Amino acid sequence: QVQLVESGGGLVQAGGSLRLSCSASGRTGSRYDMAWFRQAPGKERKEREFVAAISRSGDSTVYADSVKGRITISRDNAKNTVYVQMNSLKPEDTAVYYCAASAATLLANEYSDFGVYGYWGRGTQVTVSS
Predict the structure, then answer these.
(1) Residues 6 or more apart in contact with residue 20 via CB below 8 angstroms
(2) Virtual torsion, Cα 23, 70, 106, 116, nearest 10 deg
(3) pLDDT grade for 31, boundaries at 50, 70 and 90
(4) What mean pLDDT do residues 92-117 have?
């Protein structure tokens, strides 16, 4: 079991930057492939959109086309923390951002699949004003 807690969200103007953090506790370390998803206003849980993912070693990363070039995911296994640096933010990036973890080792084409992640945080709100 792992518990995930997101932080770093807030209100930012378009073009600004934020860094989100996801701290893991419980059975942690490098045991999990990790990802960020987001849920836009009015969307349901099953409609969460994949943002980025990183392998348990940190060697592999995957990004959604909508954020590629603007977002960087990284992890510090010594601190049990995963980060996502978001730059050039747009109003359409407004959402609740969720951290997710998979105990199973994922294939590259599985990282964006909502259903493969067994552990989720409670989310952090990101609001981008125009």
Answers:
(1) 6, 7, 8, 9, 36, 83, 84, 86, 97, 99, 124, 126
(2) 70
(3) confident
(4) 95
